Amino acid sequence: MKTLKGPSLHLAQFGADQAPFNSLDGIAGWAARTGFKALQIPAWDSRFIDVERAAVSQDYCDEITGTLTAHGLEISELSTHIFGQLVAVHPAYDAMCDNFAPPGLRGKPAERAAWALERLRMAAQASRRLGLSEMGTFSGSFVWPYLFPFPQRPEGLIETAFEELARRWRPILDVCDEHGVNLCYEIHPSEDLHDGVSFERFYELVDRHARCKMLFDPSHLVLQQLDYLAFLDIYHEHIRMFHVKDAEFRPNGRQGIYGGYSGWMERAGRFRSLGDGQVDFKAIFSKLAQYDYEGWATLEWECCLKNQEDGAREGVDFINRHIIHVTERVFDDFAGAAVDQQQIRAMLGIA
Fold first, then answer.
1. Looking at residue 100, what is its pLDDT?
2. Which helix (H) or strand (E) holds 239?
3. How far apart are CA 26 and CA 32, in angstroms?
């Protein structure tokens, strides 16, 4: 068995325009002082990385790793979620997703998708130069607005959407394979890959590609009321990244999973800081140890109540307390005895 690594910190929710959160060196110093051992870097945030430069320059990548090493940190993974989101966008979300793209591409869905696919290729190249083996992303979504089948979905709608999704992603998976990087899709509501069934549908259409993997975040499964421990039993061979994020689901007589269009504070399902929600992390860390997960435990802070710096500080201690340092010996070795094959047969009455 292997002891997983951590804690790492996903930087997407911590980047800001003021120090120390506006530069890689500044945020690395803060993260190290807080107790983190690694950073998960969002490839779209130019305050922390120029992904275009990182794709072609080993010297630049060495500078990045050197900056983190100076603070006693390493990079756990690159995150490409914003790029992945733009690979597949339903027209209902065009205006909102345009904000993720350069101004010149806004209102041009085809060009925007092509730009995102090229950025994903760059991120795969950068991951190799940075010595990384995993890269996180979103799948994007063509059919999320059709989640509930009324009016009746026309025959072939879902099939066509997933065929196009697979067509767009297959070349990126091949690029990831060229660079020795696993592409880990975060199983996430609002994405076409939002549960096990949707992942399996996609996985088959990309011919069970060896680089098609998962990012496991139990909070998103809680909000769907999906059995996240059984999910680990079923999909552990696919899971190569782990966001440690808590959530709670408290339905009442007025709302349930769909939330009644309420804001995060008023929803029955809410993201919470670590330890403030309902996720059974003791069981999750036990299963990850059981299944030899060898990646990072990465804090992703999303909470509608608690300050993010408090959430980060408490999260470091929480993850450290939950990491299982796996045993190197069997607990009952002291009672073992050497028994040869003849004795074994005698014990079974078949001598």
1. 96
2. strand 239-244
3. 10
